[in-house]
Task: structure prediction
Amino acid sequence: MKNIKIKIAGIKDNISKEKLLNKLKEKKGIKNVEFNIPEKILSITYQKINKHKIEDYLDDLDVKSEGEIEEMFEKEETYGGKNCILGILLIVLLIYSLLKRVEISELELLFLPKVYSIICFLFVIPFVVIGFKSIKRGFLNLTHKKMNRYSISLIVIVVSLLFSIYSLIRIFLGNDLYVNNLLLEPIVLIIYLLHYEELLLTSYKNKTKDLLKTLSLTMPSEVTLKVEDDFNIINLDEVRKNDILIVNSGERFTCDGVITSGTTVVDETFITGNSTLVEKKVGDIIYAGTFNYDSKIEYQVEKLPEETYLNEILNVNTNNKVVSKMIDRAVNYNIIFIILFIIFKLILNYILYSTINFNIEDIIKNFIIVFPPSLLLVTPLTIMIARKELDKNNVLIKESEKIEIAGRINTVVFDKTGTLTNGIVTISKIINNSKYEDKELLNIIGSMGKNIDHPIAISIKRYLKQEKIKPTYKFSTEYLSGYGIKAKDMNDVYYFCNKKIVKKLDIINSYKEEEKQLEREGNLVLYLIKNNKIISVVGLKDLIKLNSKKLITGLKKYKLNIIMLSGDSIMATEEVAKELGIEQFYGGMSPEAKHNFIKELQASGKKVLMVGDGMNDIPALKEAKLSVVLETSTNLTSSVSNILIKKDDILKILDLIYIGRKQNRIIKQNIFYTMILNIFLSMNVVDYTSIILTFLLSFLIIVINSLRLRR
Result:
């Protein structure tokens, strides 16, 4: 028996699920069927039938398949072997065509007009067969009135082929001079270059699929359901509204709902982008996808997985389509020039000879010769070098066209938390009111949190490790939910807690002004108390990454508009913006607000690059012209982005923009040089040898100029 996993859409509830499963189980060859609603994955065990039959079953049931899970990452065939064969045939044909102009008595038989023309036509056949995909693409573009390199190439191929067939007929009717009118070289050159472009781009797509194969996010498939005073483990798709679910510390919430029992601390960065941990109590709303850091919680389900706020974020629709058109525009402009050039020659002929010699053969030859096949090589060759440079600099581009977009960006929008900042709180300031030195205070704090797994305690441990401070005090510790840590030794009682403990213990607080100042600076304020006396006030906040300031300075040199968005408070956002030198910033931004902000920016004509790292950034990343995430981002965030910065080095965004701009300049230069060369050579067309010379020279120019992308 075999198993297949297919991602499908449209099944949103258990009633639809059961109908689908029952109908599929009735089908011949189906042995078992399972469906996971949150993951939208249909798993089918089958025998004595093939995958195509399963697809037919799904079509009959009007089930929309998004593809087999493995096939989503299946590599496309590059046909490298076929391309090598075409390359060899191309070289042989070009050499054969050139040798015709040289009188070699030993090979005289091979260059008899009829023999020569038949051999040339035989060479063209494999190109037409292998390049049929590109020819068909050109035909479809023409039928849809799209003028691009494929449709123009098809026109050149058809005109060349028809003119060559006409010349072949004239040769066999006895007019050997028509052997010079065989225009088969453009056909093989164009088909080969289109095929080679497809090979290069496909190979990069395959490389990207390898790297992205593991970039997927799945919610827990099982949850704990409270049943009176007991509990049951059930599948997530069995959950109903108003069910009471139990979520332990270290687990993720799977539905939206309201807390009915318990108090905890929740990390909502995943959803809101707010880096501050949020205390949750009975009556508070919690969201699917957020993380329970503290203690066991019971909550009542209000929204099922397919209805949650998280699901809304993931399914934001955008109309953003990006297509590389630079080379297509150049080809179109070149065609316009060809027409003008032919008209100019007719007018010049009339001025010089007082007559218009409308020679259709001469017009067709000029049309073919002035159209430079080497233009088709400009994009893939330049992109290949640009991508290698970006790969070398740890910048993964999922689609080659995005490099061109990177060169045209005029606005960069940053998420704050986890992008420009570290994304985790750490000690930023200590107000010391004790006989202890700061290092000793940190020793006490570190010793208190040594055996505590709360995220703040973990971040403090990381900070102490960086500062090379080893905790040496031996305390018996207790975590006070909603407050902080309590510790005892033989003689003293310590607290490292928030300001609520000060009020609860009725301790005199003479640090209210310092507390307000720390909060204005974006700090979470904690008090270190010894024997009911405050000995230190500690500020913790999400610190700016080391390279963030260099990045903003570098982007300003490119004269880009820089904006920062954050789910954090306006106060905390402003503090980071001031430190980085960002003039335009917005705090308290929900995922929808970020998405709408990007949408409005682009509607006003801005070309936006969005840099984010969390689930809350997904709608904005989808909407932006270009989206960039860091390697440390969530898997799903990475999967919806265009560009992935490896090794979490945010400075690489400067490399992306630099190479994007340089690539665009080089492509424009290559187009200009190629067209000028073709125009110059076409002024003195004697025979068709010039097209081979034009191709070789323009190819050399393109290669040399494109190599300037290497640094």
